[in-house]
Amino acid sequence: MEPVQLFNQSNLQIQDCGAKGRGIFTTVSIPARTVIDISPILLFPSEEYSTHGQHTQLDHYTYRWKGGMALALGLGSMFNHSSTPNVGFQRDIDNSLIRYSTLREIQVGEELCISYGPNLWFPDMEDSQDQNNSSGGRATNGDVSDSEDETAESFFSRIQLSDDDDDYDHSN
Ligand SMILES: C[S@@+](CC[C@H](N)C(=O)[O-])C[C@H]1O[C@@H](n2cnc3c(N)ncnc32)[C@H](O)[C@@H]1O
């Protein structure tokens, strides 16, 4: 594995988000396409996960991964879901980590959210986060430029795993 530089997260905070539990917020504005976190992952092989992990709290936090399910160690486990995410993520299978990057400029006080995909296992309380959003600038199609939209698309395409990776569905 190649050495991977980790990041100083002093401008990010964990805050209470009411019904969503905890979430990640920024105390500074962040430009589009900024890498905000690199989370090493802990892999649970498919058989171990289906026997044990799937029946525990882990199932609220794990990502589909090649050969099983992965727990992101660090901020990666703390991002809440949004159907209009302002953060995208990219799995680095070879290095057992996930990189998280902003999909558009993010304003001071905004929550940083990723998309969990279409099969949620909880009622989506996304709208309740507006009380924490001083700028009112949640990600919408109107907030991103065409080029940033293309970046979002490339992240989305990676969220949907395929082939042998797709052996576990969070919606079941
Ligand atoms: C990966 S955890 C995110 C961190 C979590 N909020 C915490 O406090 O540990 C995923 C869980 O957060 C909650 N969650 C995330 N996004 C949500 C949303 N849009 N609406 C409601 N609950 C959400 C759900 O309970 C989900 O199972």
TrEMBL record:
Region (Disordered): 124-172
Comp. bias intervals (Polar residues): 130-144
Pfam families: SET
Coiled-coil features, chain-numbered ranges: none
Superkingdom per UniProt: Eukaryota
Biased composition (Acidic residues): 162-172
SUPFAM superfamilies named in the record: SET domain
Protein name: SET domain-containing protein
Organism in which the protein naturally occurs: Linnemannia hyalina
